[in-house]
Structures are given as C-alpha cells and as structure tokens.
Write a structure and sequence with these properties.
Elements: H1 12-32, E1 35-36, E2 43-44, E3 49-50, E4 55-56, E5 61-63, E6 67-68, E7 73-74, E8 79-81, E9 84-85, E10 90-91, E11 96-98, E12 101-102, E13 107-108, E14 113-114, E15 119-120, E16 125-128, E17 131-133, E18 136-137, E19 142-145, E20 148-150, E21 152-154, E22 159-160, E23 165-167, E24 177-179, E25 184-185, E26 190-192, E27 195-197, E28 202-203, E29 208-209, E30 218-219, H2 231-237
Parallel strand pairs: 1-4, 2-5, 3-6, 4-7, 5-8, 6-9, 7-10, 8-11, 9-12, 10-13, 11-14, 12-15, 13-16, 14-17, 15-18, 16-19, 17-20, 18-21, 19-22, 21-24, 22-25, 23-26, 24-27, 25-28, 26-29, 28-30
Amino acid sequence: MKVEAKNLPTNAAELAALDAARRAAAERLIASGVLIERPESCLIDPEVEVAPGALIEPYVQLLGRTRIGPGCRIRSFSVIENCTLAANVLVRNHSILEDSVLADGAQIGPFSRLRPGSEIGEQARVGNFVEIKKSHLGRGVKASHLTYLGDTEVGEGTNIGAGTITCNYDGVNKHVTRIGKGAFVGSDATLVAPVSIGDGAYIGAGSCITKEVPADALAVARSRQIVKEGWAAARRAAK
C-alpha cells in the first residue's frame, strides 16, 4: 500500500488500512535492527527507511519518504516528514522537520522547526525554539535559541545569537541574507534582507543591520544609551 503523507484518510476503512500499514512498517524496521521504544505509540509510514542501530523513542511520527541514517536518535514527540538524516543525527523532543536535509552529527531541538528547503550541515546545532526556512547552515553553525532564519546562507563555524531574526519578506518579495564563515551575530540582532555579512564579522547585540558588513568588521546599529541619574527618585517624590 503506497501512502502519500499529504493524502489523509477520508473514512474509517482508509484509516484502518493506514494503521495496519504503519504497524507493518514498524515491525519491518524492528526486524532489520532498528531500535523502537514503544512501537505501538509511533506512526511510521510504509515508505520510511531507517538504518539499523538508529533509536526511535515513543510517540515519534516518521512520515512520507523520510530516510534516517545509522546512529541517529529521534526523541519523543518529534514529527519528521520527507526528510533525509545522515549518520548520528540527534533530534531532541518536540521538534518538527519537513522536507529538509541534515548532515552527519547535526543536532536539532528541543522544540525546533525545520521548514521545507532547510539544509543543516555537519555538526551544526539548531536549538530550542529556533525556526529555519529554506536556509543552508554550514558545518558547525550554532543557532541555539529563539531564532528565525529564513532564506539564509550561513557559513561554517558561525554563531547565531539568541533572538536573531532575518527579515526576509518585504510584504511583496522574499530576499536572501548571507552570513560568512566564522561570523558572530550577537543576541537580538535583526538582519534586514537583502544583506550580506562577511567572514569573521561581528554584529553587536541588539543591532538592526540593513547594509553590507565587510569581513572581520564590527557592526553596531542601535541607539546610544542615555542615563539620567536620580530621575526615578525625583519622579517618585513628585507624586
């Protein structure tokens, strides 16, 4: 029985047939050497392929034509659809991956989302509450928390600080952000596409970047801090 991930059952008979096909898929994978904890809790589509030795935890969904390589660990409550995972990939709990490719040793989650067209390089890390869309992250890139990267190319070894956002949509068209190798993007940075950041460049925390940043440069784009000593005390006294 061929099951397309997008073609949901429309009646009880079709749902029963799909359930049976998924149970058979889990049994087939277990027989081949895949480790599946609580297989009755997992949804595994018939065309899914998993290499022997991979570990699938309870309540995981593997959908469509997903391919999972040796040494991978898929932790509970993750949903993976039409993705290819190379060897030793770790998908932490509650992550959602769709139409994406992950290279050897990549780590995802918890609570990460990979939207279609995402490519995650070797040993790259995509952390909690990070969303990636139609982007390429090079080897060893780290985007650890609370970040959105859309239509973005990130060179190897670059660090993306917490709260970084690529502003890829101007209301009409999508635009690309390019970040070079070994760059450092400080927390809460806003990168307004189209924009390029050179190799080894630094972006100060809280900056809104709208122009090209050369290699090895420091870019800071934020208002100067003003401190008025005694202002708060005087305001309270005036009440």
